[in-house]
């Protein structure tokens, strides 16, 4: 537990082996794994508690879109056998409870310093060490630095004029008050219809006097079909846990158990497709749906069959035809933006107290003292505004830290035109700095905890190799980095992903370079590549 100073353990020792930025799922596993090698580690966490994403995102309805039996650590079989998930999908409070349990069970807190934001990280070329400075005035020296700062951890409120004059209260989904918010009797506006908006809208609608949803881009959403945990399913899953986790390594999204599709959607008849999509729709979840056929994410024509299936579901659910048409996405193929999972999202628009406002045709111009005004001059009176407007994804957290070296390289300059990494793990010119699930890694396209464990285990393997061979420094070559970035782009360009204006390409942040950031070649291919690189003596890395 934090002491009065807000530190969860004593002050950082003068020189660490590894400084870890962040104490979410990634930072905590890094503590466990690297400490297990006898290394002196410490994680610095901006929040007043551990848990990262699951600490901050406390908006109503926040829940994981990966099933709870999958979305958990695999490193301890005792842990995965003993922990009981009450529902098919974990809620934010439940996942946070799990993370806190893990921290206690593996005694991780003593190496976490809370309430501490890392503001700069400087690699001293001569001394061969990093110095991290924090907003509490620490200067922490470490041989290595592991960036576990998250992909969706830098909340962004659009730069709307007048926000400071708003007389009501406003919130961002990713900075939600711990005490919760009661919207009863209020006129509420939700801006944004990504995963966060789609999860909170049905719940806020039940509380608010009136809810206006300001939608710029309609998103595809599938039913989650959440339910209490099926005990027989849990029993079977747990009996097979280690085998399932191993089998997950050979899947594109790090989750086993989904039969691999064998044919194109275009080889099926219209009726066969309808039946297949309907079965997946009833089953709930997004992976299964997108895995109906081999080519939903590579062929526009194939994808259109799935997109139209979902649009028809929306039309069949939402009673007002104009609202239904606005909610039916037409500007991107299904799955090319992160697919949302919902509970009663489309049905919510049949409520008399809910109004959908199209801010694509008439954009939000400003926040006024009493609400919101569009460019066309329409005024909406609001008592509370919720920004479900997303994050500066994948690069935001690292770009907020002044990362540089004494020989003059800065990460800000290096990534000016978009992030450059080798395997998503390291950056040329920035020795001994590892990134967990960074740009160029498949992390966000997978069961994130599996990627976190795989990345961290790879880093541990690299550090063990260095120790064995008495090496001090590791960094990728510029050539290996350039080739990886080119590969990441080539793979993305062979799919439909770049067609969407998503956070995968930074489209939600005005002025952010449009670069496709995640690796979409699959977790299986990525892991094989990482393993081969290590087995080949860390091909593409300079080790000295
Ligand atoms: O953010 P988003 P999110 N005016 O970027 C709109 C994960 N996650 O927090 O699409 C009007 O997806 C923006 O419009 P547009 C998951 O990976 C997971 O919802 O840019 N609107 C969009 O509708 C997810 O993908 C879970 O045109 C504006 C919305 O705000 C990721 O986090 C739950 C605007 C932002 O959507 C991010 O999701 C929650 C403006 N000026 C999150 N600016 C689960 O596990 C932005 N928007 C279920």
Automatic annotation (TrEMBL):
It holds the Pfam family FMO-like. InterPro entries: FAD-binding_Monooxygenases (IPR050775), FAD/NAD-bd_sf (IPR036188), Flavin_mOase-like (IPR020946). Keywords: FAD, Flavoprotein, Monooxygenase, NADP, Oxidoreductase. Its cofactor is FAD. GO terms for molecular function: flavin adenine dinucleotide binding; N,N-dimethylaniline monooxygenase activity; NADP binding. The keyword ATP-binding does not apply. It comes from the Bacteria. The keyword Hydrolase does not apply. Belongs to the FAD-binding monooxygenase family. This is NAD(P)/FAD-dependent oxidoreductase. The lineage of its organism: Bacteria, Pseudomonadati, Pseudomonadota, Alphaproteobacteria, Hyphomicrobiales.
């Amino acid at each position: 537990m934090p002491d009065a100073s807000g530190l969860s353990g004593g002050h950082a020792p003068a020189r660490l082996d590894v400084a870890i930025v962040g104490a979410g799922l990634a930072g905590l596993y890094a503590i466990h794994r690297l400490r297990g090698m006898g290394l002196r580690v410490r994680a610095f966490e901006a929040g007043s508690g551990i848990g990262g994403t699951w600490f901050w995102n406390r908006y109503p309805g926040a829940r994981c879109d990966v099933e709870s039996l999958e979305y958990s650590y695999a490193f301890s079989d005792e842990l995965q056998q003993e922990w009981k998930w009450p529902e098919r999908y974990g809620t934010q409070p439940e996942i946070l409870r799990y993370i806190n349990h893990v921290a206690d069970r593996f005694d991780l807190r003593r190496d976490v310093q809370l309430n501490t934001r890392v503001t700069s990280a400087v690699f001293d070329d001569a001394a061969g060490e990093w110095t991290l400075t924090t907003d509490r005035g620490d200067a922490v020296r470490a041989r290595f630095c592991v960036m576990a700062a998250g992909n969706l951890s830098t909340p962004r409120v659009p730069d709307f004029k007048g926000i400071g004059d708003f007389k009501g209260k406003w919130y961002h989904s990713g900075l939600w008050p711990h005490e919760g918010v009661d919207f009863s009797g209020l006129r509420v506006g939700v801006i944004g219809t990504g995963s966060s908006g789609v999860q909170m809208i049905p719940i806020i609608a039940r509380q608010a006097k009136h809810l206006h949803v300001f939608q710029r881009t309609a998103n595809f959403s599938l039913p989650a079909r959440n339910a209490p945990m099926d005990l027989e399913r849990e029993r079977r899953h747990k009996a097979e846990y280690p085998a399932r986790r191993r089998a997950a390594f050979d899947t594109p999204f790090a989750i086993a158990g989904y039969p691999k599709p064998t044919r194109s959607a275009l080889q099926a008849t219209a009726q066969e497709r309808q039946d297949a999509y309907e079965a997946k729709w009833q089953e709930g979840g997004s992976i299964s749906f997108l895995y109906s056929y081999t080519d939903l994410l590579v062929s526009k024509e194939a994808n259109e069959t799935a997109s139209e299936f979902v649009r028809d579901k929306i039309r069949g659910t939402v009673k007002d035809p104009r609202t239904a048409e606005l909610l039916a996405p037409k500007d991107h193929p299904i799955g090319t933006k992160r697919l949302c999972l919902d509970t009663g999202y489309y049905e919510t628009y049949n409520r008399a107290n809910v109004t959908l406002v199209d801010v694509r045709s008439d954009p939000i111009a400003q926040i006024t003292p009493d609400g919101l005004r569009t460019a066309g001059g329409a005024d909406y009176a609001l008592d509370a505004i919720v920004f479900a407007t997303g994050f500066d994804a994948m690069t935001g957290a690292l770009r907020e830290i002044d990362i540089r070296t004494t020989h003059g390289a800065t990460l800000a300059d290096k990534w000016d035109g978009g992030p450059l990494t080798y395997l998503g793990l390291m950056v040329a010119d920035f020795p001994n700095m590892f990134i967990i699930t960074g740009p160029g890694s498949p992390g966000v396209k997978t069961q994130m905890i599996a990627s976190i464990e795989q990345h961290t285990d790879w880093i541990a393997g690299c550090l063990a190799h260095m120790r064995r061979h008495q090496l001090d420094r590791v960094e990728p070559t510029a050539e290996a980095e350039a080739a990886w970035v080119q590969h990441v782009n080539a793979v993305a360009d062979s799919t439909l992903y770049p067609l969407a204006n998503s956070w995968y390409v930074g489209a939600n942040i005005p002025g952010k370079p449009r670069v496709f950031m995640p690796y979409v070649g699959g977790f299986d291919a990525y892991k094989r590549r990482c393993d081969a690189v290590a087995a080949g003596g860390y091909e593409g890395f300079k080790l000295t």
